[in-house]
Amino acid sequence: MEKLRIEKKMLHRVKNFIKKFFISIVLLFLIAILFNCYSSENEIVSSLSIVSYGGGSYQKSHIESFLKPFEKFTGITMNSITWGAEYGKLKEMVSSGNVPWDVVEVTDAQFKRGKREGLFEKLVIYPESKEFLPNTIDDYGVANVYWGTVMAYSYKEFPDNQPNSWRDFWDIEAFPGFRALYDDPRGNLEFALLADGVDIDSLYPLDVDRAFEKLNLIKDNIRVWWNEGTQPIQLLQNKSIVMTSAWNGRIFALREQEKKIGYTWFGAALELDWWIIPKGSNFVETASRFITFSSYPERMAHQATLIGYGPVNMEALKYIEKDIQTMLPTYQENWNKSFVINAEWWSENETVMMKRWITWKNK
Amino acid sequence: MNKIKVILSLVPLVLMFLFFWVPIIVWLQKWVFATNTISFWPDSSTRTLLLNTFYVASITSLVSTTIAHPITIFWWLASRRYRTILISVMMLPLFVGLLARNYSWIGMLSYLESTNISLLNIFSDQHILYTNFSVVLVMIYIFIPFAFFIIIQSFSTIGFAELNAGKTMGASFFESLHKLVLPRTWKQTIISILFIFASSFGYYVTPRMIGGGKNDLIGNLIWRYMEQGDLDSASLSALILLLLLVPLYVVSFILIVRWRRRILGR
Fold it and tell me: Does the pLDDT value for residue B125 go beyond 70?
């Protein structure tokens, strides 16, 4: 009898606990919804989250050139976050309505795709477009820099005869040793076609079958498919490879410390990076102000001196020393040797190409 | 008391249903009624990666469990003070982040290659880093502590009576260990193998960093699909993983039940 009474009491307590637990979960949920509804642009902006693509010295250039000065100018705390341009992450964030990021840097292909899919907010304030390169200001974003994927090599391995083109990259006999390439079909298909003799002005639409056939010839000599910006430089420094594709800004950032790495602009792939505001962001006006601030020529010039990427605001060149200008992708001599990645083509074909790339890489 | 047990056991079941089975049911329903075709049969890239993943996960689980056994036996035979020290030593790697551990292996293997140590002559091109071998090596290193802490649970319940009994019967130490002690640890050994197999099956950080992009596992493929925003393909690949692992666990459950009947007689 006593045992039954104790059991009933315990059962009652357990039921009460579970009831209170679920009621508290529901209450917390309601509070979260109310908080979200109440937060708006009318609130004072205390902090802004800026997301850079790739981290490392590039993120540092954003912090030094844009975030810190903007924080000093406005008093708003600026948070710098890095991401690996995972489009799916941005898409999920926007579709869930939970957008903790205020300004995000995306690639050109992602910008085209995101605009099509309605992932971005319209800007409220725009920079004045007098000296901007063509098609670098849009209702949904402003371009930041042109950056290049160049061919880099070790001076020590090739002291007399340096490789100078993607044909040399594919020439294992003349330039023996392991190579590395970025783990993405974007850029690599173009490099393969250039190595196969396709004219730089006739790359698009890409002959994908031909590109993969050419890549088959070099596959066994690719030691690493790198995925972090600092990796190709580290691989060259620790002699794991002799040649690689690399982002020109990473080599630029090391130019004072490391003179053992050479690179060429012949056949370099140039791409734009864009600042956008994800749909659902809480501070569209302030984010637009930040983007406009980052487009000032002095700010872009400061960034170029740190990272070596070409500013899209050509007025910035007034503030950049000549010897640094010659290292930028937008410098006329470098521009003439390079090609611009066709973002439209890639925004439509990226998913299919990525599947084919994964299949090919793991055969 | 039975009602209390039923109610308390309902809570984890409800949570599991909400956060595990509901998303799978939603996805399956979407696949059944989809207007565009989503092929359930894995394509060639998925099949290749599944095979590689199975191979890597199998070797990792078997080798790390095997290596953990002598360490556990050493712990079992050690005095109380050394037992505490050994447990602390095994726990230390778990306090260091996974990224840091992976980077240290990259540094170490790069250094070994650059100094051309003769041990590397066993590899034809003297390269360990960015190979399948290096991925397996690092994953074994990561999972040895887990295997240790699983197997230790069986050893902690075994006294020295069996060893002493064997000794009085004229059996050597190793004979007693093999015939009397180790059979009683069979359950934890299977659990260790299964736990490490399931954990390593979904791994993608170590293969990405140590494998050089040439030795991807199925987790890398799922990550790629998520990166592209191709959630259908990512979900499908994850579902295939689940469907492969569930029969494995059914088989292991049968093995454990048979072990109990054979060893414990119930």
Answer: no
Burial of A130 (0-12, 13-18, 19+ CB in 10 A): exposed
**3-state secondary structure (DSSP) of residue A142:** strand
Which residues, numbered 323 to 362 in chain A, qualify as contacts with chain B under a Cβ-Cβ cut-off of 8 Å?
350-351, 354-355, 358-359, 361-362
* Contact criterion met (CB < 8 Å) for B229 and A355: no
Report d(CA A48, CA A63) in Å as an integer: 13
Residue of A nearest to B53 (CA): A362
pLDDT digits (tens, 9 = 90+) for A294-317: 999 999 999 999 988 999 999 999
| Polymer length in residues for chain B | 266
pLDDT, tens digit, 9 for 90 and up, residues A45-97? 789 999 998 778 889 999 999 999 999 999 999 999 998 888 888 998 999 88
Residue B53 CB partners (closer than 8 Å, separation 6+): B201, B217, B218, B219
Between CA A277 and CA A90 the distance in angstroms is: 11
State how far the Cα of A241 lies from the Cα of A221, in Å rounded to an integer. 10
Phi-psi region of A239 (alpha: psi -120 to 50; beta: other; left: phi over 0): left
Instruction: For chain A, say whether B30 makes contact (Cβ under 8 Å).
Output: no
B116 — contact with chain A (CB < 8 Å)? no
| CA closest to A85 among chain B residues | B227
Taking CA–CA distances from A11, the nearest residue in chain B reads B4
Nearest to A61 by CA among A358, A324, A360, A352: A324
Whether A192 contacts A211, CB under 8 Å: yes
Q: DSSP secondary structure string, A158-217? A: -SSS---SHHHHH-TTTS-S-EEEESSHHHHHHHHHHHTT--GGG-PSP-HHHHHHHHHH
Task: Say if residues A91 and B229 touch (Cβ distance below 8 Å).
Answer: yes
- Three-class DSSP category at A228: coil
DSSP strand E in chain A: where? 47-53, 77-83, 103-107, 137-138, 141-154, 179-182, 222-226, 243-247, 261-276, 310-311, 339-340
Residues in B touching A92 (Cβ below 8 Å): 229, 231
**Which chain A residues are closer than 8 Å to B218 by Cβ?**
none
Question: Is A224 in contact with B130 (Cβ distance < 8 A)?
Answer: yes
**Are the Cβ atoms of B129 and A240 closer than 8 angstroms?**
yes
Characterize A160-179 residue by residue with b for buried, 16 or more Cβ atoms within 10 angstroms of its Cβ, and e for exposed.
eeebebbebbbeeeebebbb
Chain B residues with CB under 8 Å of A89 CB are 226-227
